[in-house]
Design brief:
With 194 residues, the chain is α/β, with parallel strands linked by helices. 35% of the residues lie in helices and 21% in strands.
């Protein structure tokens, strides 16, 4: 039961991407930074916005890569190596096509599932870190995926995604302390109210 030391949000830098589905991981970490008064500032060494603070009495680092999604490893890998952070102490939050908007899942290990951010990270650190998979839904055909992830959610989907993120925040003390199974039960059991 290892407490988390690093929480990464995956997304694309720049205002034009800030509200797009692909930035759902950014949204989660930005909310954390806001809630726990952790300043995020550019650290060129790690090609990302980084911050460090106390979350439920644990010392935690936050990271938002500014490398664009498909180069996320250029940010995550140097930070993990520099601070010698074990994979069991890492949570990576990212958008997930394979689950609907309003669903959220906590998973440990597994493949990259076609996610370009994870695809760029796993060859360098392995895949046995924790992932917060934030559902954005699938557009129905692979030819539409790029346009889907790089567009804003509908108002209803945005409300659903925000509700799912709230469920993850509700489990945060469990997550941070390393009680991953209890956190997983809480997060994976989340259902949007009818």
């Amino acid at each position: 039961m290892s407490p988390l030391k690093l929480i990464v949000g995956l997304g694309n830098p720049g205002q034009q991407y800030a509200q797009t589905r692909h930035n759902a991981g950014f949204w989660f970490v930005e909310q954390l930074a806001d809630k726990f008064n952790i300043d995020l500032s550019l650290d060129k060494k790690f090609h990302g916005l980084t911050g460090r603070g106390r979350i439920f009495d644990h010392d935690v680092r936050l990271l938002l890569p500014v490398t664009f999604m498909n180069k996320s490893g250029q940010s995550v890998v140097p930070m993990v190596n520099f601070y010698d952070i074990a994979n069991t102490q890492i949570l990576i939050a990212h958008d997930e096509l394979d689950i609907p908007a309003g669903s959220i899942k906590l998973k440990t290990g597994g493949g990259h599932g076609g996610h370009n951010g994870l695809r760029d990270i796993t060859p360098h650190i392995g895949n046995d870190f924790h992932r917060l998979r934030i559902g954005i839904g699938h557009p129905g055909h692979k030819s539409k995926v790029s346009g889907h992830v790089l567009s804003k959610p509908s108002p209803d989907d945005q409300v659903a995604i925000n509700s799912a993120l709230d469920a993850a925040h509700d489990a945060l003390s469990l997550l941070i302390s390393g009680d991953i199974e209890k956190a997983r039960n809480h997060i994976n059991g989340f259902k949007l109210p009818d």
